[in-house]
């Protein structure tokens, strides 16, 4: 059954496996989504393809849309963003070709696929779907606050863009490696592509924000964990509404605070100091206890990418002593990260 | 310049004066919007009109759409809601007639005006607008947290639907009576119709919630007050996202807590106790200080409609003693309400 053009399906699931599309990109920085998919969803990516002029590669096999379809691919994912988030002219012919080969098109760009007439015409003609992951599903209920079964973890942050998605993904991988039944629940466009579904929480109408979060992590077996990708920060003057609706609706048992020790002010807002980790813990417990009185902080995920190995370990040790909590950098892993996982499961 | 069909104009303003439309209503309870407009915007209502079978009246003169247009009316406002919020079959002919007489149509019903083909056709033919006040304006910026000039008050609450709009309107009237330059800033559909403009905050996409609140109360002279209608409650598990975005973006200098002493649980959520007034004050100061460190509680607006005069006065006196703050019922007015206004202005 096909979803309406341009919408995630009611089931919140994307057609997988994927063929990754790299556009005509010449700088790896613009292909972050493709690299994220190759890192976290390689088992669901059959290969990569590009438009003329492209010079970057994820290392996956190069497959034409027809070959990818023959290898089982069900959609082509636009894995690059150029400046302005537009759909490049040289891309359109490739995307039409992909639809003719039987692939749906998945995009997280600002420009909607459905705003490009040639793509809409090709989708109608071929019966393929144009799926914008920035568009929320059509049927989101108002939140009801009912306690759901199963366990939930939410990554929160001192600000935007400092590792909440990465932390939830790394915890998901670690949980699975320990044999724990767990799902990564995605709330942003890249996460949704990696998970193959989710809800773009920042695009949901405010009245439905908590309801969307409730929908994202439904009732589950008692020993099942949902590892939920956080958004924004309850201290961010622009985005706190998203963060609070997600916190209330997620009703997490455990949260992990994500922080970048080099960041001193809110991204793009020089007059707003970054909150301390302690402030984030305190306010998250206070607000989160409204829908889960047992909420607790499992530890801290520190982005130490600006430090060398010794510096990072010294910083994390100092933070452990200061906060009395596990502190780890999931990118570095190691015993510190294992201790964080232990504390979450304790 | 006409706004697109079905949207508030960029300027957030509705065409006034109004002709109130009462549909075929036979119970006053369904005509709350019309009565609210007659109470709070009588100077901008030229009269009322109805469909066959209507038995209620606001007391305004009965005028046909043509006569209303001749008297200066610029729009017909649907001032009633029937069960389901639909547009009654008998109404359509009246609404078409009103457009032919030169009136735009304004509605806050769940059913969009633009979903009724006969109305869309008549709007195209006559060049009139179909304005759904539940639809936010098209151009809302992301919040920036910048401190704006002028003074702001926000009504907040222990829950939904217990007097936040009424309190802001009563304060607006009191401020104007004292010669203070003030605007009522509407955030819900009835308030928007009364004010002649505003932003339906619960319909704004979450990422833009704080930005919408910033847009609603722009820079103003230093001695000007914006009296902002609150929405929901930061303690409401379904709607707190709306409330927090509105609080951050409004950056109020003063807030007034609205409370109904007979309500013990959140409306429609029996497992959620109503927060205390003190809890609302404490958390509002904590969250609101993010965008206005000088935020303070001006007092409490108590809905005492279930009490007789003596009982209400005794309750308010006890609450004043307990909280050490002005406590008043704006519907009862009197010296208690004057003291609340004094405290806000102090």
TrEMBL record, chains A, B:
Domain D-glutamate N-acetyltransferase-like C-terminal: 142-335
InterPro entries in the record: DgcN-like, DgcN-like_C, DgcN-like_N, P-loop_NTPase
SUPFAM superfamilies, A to Z: P-loop containing nucleoside triphosphate hydrolases
One Pfam assignment: DUF1611
Domain D-glutamate N-acetyltransferase-like N-terminal: 53-136
Gene3D superfamilies for the chain: NAD(P)-binding Rossmann-like Domain, P-loop containing nucleotide triphosphate hydrolases
PANTHER family, per database record: DUF1611 DOMAIN-CONTAINING PROTEIN (PTHR40690:SF1), GLL3100 PROTEIN (PTHR40690)
Name used for this protein in its record: EBNA-1 nuclear protein
Species name: Sphingopyxis granuli
């Amino acid at each position: 059954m096909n979803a309406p053009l341009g919408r995630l399906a009611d089931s919140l699931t994307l057609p997988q496996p994927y063929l990754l599309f790299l556009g005509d990109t010449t700088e790896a920085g613009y292909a972050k989504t493709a690299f994220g998919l190759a890192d976290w969803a390689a088992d669901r990516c059959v290969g990569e393809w590009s438009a003329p002029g492209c010079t970057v590669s994820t290392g996956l096999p190069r497959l034409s849309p027809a070959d990818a379809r023959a290898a089982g691919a069900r959609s082509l994912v636009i894995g690059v963003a150029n400046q302005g988030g537009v759909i490049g002219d040289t891309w359109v012919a490739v995307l039409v070709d992909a639809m003719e080969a039987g692939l749906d098109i998945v995009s997280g760009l600002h420009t909607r696929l459905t705003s490009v007439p040639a793509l809409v015409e090709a989708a109608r003609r071929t019966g393929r779907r144009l799926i914008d992951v920035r568009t929320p599903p059509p049927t989101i209920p108002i939140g009801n606050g009912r306690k759901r079964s199963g366990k939930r973890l939410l990554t929160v942050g001192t600000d935007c863009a400092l590792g909440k998605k990465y932390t939830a993904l790394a915890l998901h991988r670690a949980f699975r490696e320990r044999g724990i039944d767990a799902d990564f629940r995605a709330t942003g466009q890249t996460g949704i592509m990696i998970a193959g579904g989710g809800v773009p929480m920042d695009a949901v109408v405010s009245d439905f924000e908590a309801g969307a979060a409730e929908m994202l992590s439904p009732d589950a077996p008692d020993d099942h964990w949902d590892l939920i990708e956080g958004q924004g920060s309850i201290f961010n003057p622009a985005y706190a509404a998203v963060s609070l609706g997600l916190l209330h609706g997620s009703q997490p048992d455990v949260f992990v605070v994500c922080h970048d020790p080099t960041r001193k002010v809110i991204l793009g807002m020089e007059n707003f100091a970054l909150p301390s980790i302690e402030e984030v813990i305190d306010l998250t417990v206070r607000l989160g206890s409204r829908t889960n009185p047992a909420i607790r902080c499992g530890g801290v995920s520190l982005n130490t990418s600006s430090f060398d190995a010794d510096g990072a370990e010294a910083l994390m040790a100092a933070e452990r002593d200061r906060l009395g909590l596990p502190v780890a950098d999931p990118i570095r892993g190691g015993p510190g990260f294992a201790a964080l996982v232990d504390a979450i499961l304790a």
